[in-house]
Amino acid sequence: MTLHTGFSAVFVLSFAFAIPAVAQDEGRALSHACTSCHGIEGRGSTQIPALAGRSASELLALLQELRRPDVAMDVSATIMPRLLRGYDDAQLEALAAYFAQVAP
Amino acid sequence: MKRRAVLAGLAAAPFAPSLLRAQTGPHVVILGAGFGGGSLARALRRADAGIRVTLIERGASIHTCPFSNGVLGGMWPLERVGFSTDGLTAAGIDVIHAEATVIEPENKAVILADGTRIAGDALVLAPGISFDWTAIEGLTEETAETMPHAWQGGRQTQILRDQLVAMEDGGLVVMGIPAPPFRCPPGPYERICLIAHYLKEHKPASRILVLDAQDGFSKQPLFEEAWAALYPGMIERIPGSESGAVVAVDAATRRVSTLFDDITADVANIIPPQTASRLLITAGLDDGLGWCPVDPLSFESRLAPDVYVLGDSALQGDMPKSAFSANMQAKACAEAILARWRNANPQPVPLLNVCYSLAAPDYGLSIADVFAPGPDKTTLMFDQARTTPLGAGPDFHRAEAEYAHSWYDTITSEIYG
Asked: Which residue from B211, B183, B35, B3 is spatially nearest to B107, judged by alpha carbons?
């Protein structure tokens, strides 16, 4: 368990550092849409979860899951399926990578 | 016509003065510390400490329209929606408390009431709406003290709240809703809910009559579902197609008239038709349209280079006049101003709008949309499944009420914190 966690942390870290500058800029530009709910730089709010500092792979998996139309009636999903249909895979990847490298 | 020619001639060399001042950022002058102007000031300051930001706001505090319907419903006091501008000052923004009297787009300048001219390399205008006081006979700025619109936050909200508290049980509340476009499309219908919530708890024999210039309205099936479930028999609405529009009022007798009927109200909340801020119209920035056309990527005025219009006054396409939209536009505008300063192009990104409404303290509903910043306007990307589903159930509505509070606390701390 410890080994596994350690491995994914190293993986995520190297992934974050590997983002090219253009993708970084795109992720930052895209992230502005998120912060009035998810907090400044995605650092969280009272009810709506933080995004900053979570692993890019976890964030990407969540974003892809929330983009599925059949999760729209899920209480915990609320508005996210409606919003995420406006984003393609590359944009979700840029968002996940951006928030992963923000200090929580 | 003359003004447009002058403006067109000035289209070259954006930010020329600042480019000559090595290592100094541009000076950005912003009018209005609401969701557009306040958000822009903070976004610029967070992005680059070298930018000089001057923010002109008439009052020392801001009272928001979002969540003001909860004040009317007795759910929280006016202080819940009041914010000092001190946080903006503490963030390194030069806040000037003064009334703006003239805008000079060609000079990227604002003239204050004392005659001071504040000019920058870029001018961002986010002053909100003005009311069209010619539209309803008898309704003026003065008579609106008796028949409040409560469509600008603060004092007007308190006047309407006090009238609701003073009203006897069994009274008639009349609400007049204007033809679109107006600030906050779902706002009047949330207000109906939260006034009904107050009346149901404290004055259950009272009724609400809605005189509506519109036929259909934002989140209509969801609001009607909530009215039937929560406030049966309390609310009657006359749509525009049945002469619902208010055409005249008499403040002395609280009489409200449509083309079809005269009604005497105990409390009359008449929301007048709206335009872009009159300051902007006087400056010619509306091109005779009543709202100010802007580029959908940068929110730069179509008529004046390096002058930007954010929020309710802007004519940008499909985004509603909402706090969320103004905040989103401010962030896109900040990117555009920074990109121009760095001689780069801003990246087009999806623009979002989310409007939560409360039908009761634990009953939220939402509309959530995505807009493309082009090709020539902000363009709604999906026209289906935009709202909370009908029949969503109490857990869903409770979650959306909690998210509404969380959003409000977060966006206001992003700006004023």
From this structure: B3
Q: How confident is the model at residue B15 (pLDDT cuts 50, 70, 90)?
A: low
- A82: nearest CB among B385, B392, B403: B385
- CB-CB neighbors (< 8 A) of B330 in chain A: none
- CA-CA-CA-CA dihedral for B161, B163, B165, B171, to nearest 10: -130
Q: Identify the three-state secondary structure at position B356.
A: strand
Q: Do B410 and A45 touch (CB under 8 A)?
A: yes
List CB contacts of B349: < 8 A, sequence separation 6 or more.
A26, A29, A30, A32, A33, B332, B373
Enumerate the residues of chain B whose CB falls inside 8 A of the CB of residue A33.
328, 331, 349-352
Looking at residue A24, what is its pLDDT?
A: 76
Within 10 Å of residue B233's Cβ, how many Cβ atoms? 8
User: Which token pair is A97?
Assistant: 């990578």
Integer Cα distance of B357 and B189 in angstroms: 9
ipTM of the complex: 0.90
Asked if A24 has any chain B CB less than 8 Å from its own CB, the reply is: no
Q: Residue ranges of chain A with pLDDT lower than 70?
A: 1-22, 72-73
At A77 the pLDDT is: 81
The reported pTM is 0.92
Chain B interface, mutation test: which of A68, A76, A82, most B Cβ atoms within 10 Å? A82
Confidence band for B12, pLDDT divided at 50, 70 and 90? very low
The torsion defined by the Cα of B304, B306, B310 and B313, in degrees rounded to 10, comes to -20
CA distance B369 to A83: 6
- Tell me the residue ranges of DSSP E strands in chain A: none
* Closest among B204, B200, B195, B193 to B170, alpha carbons compared: B204
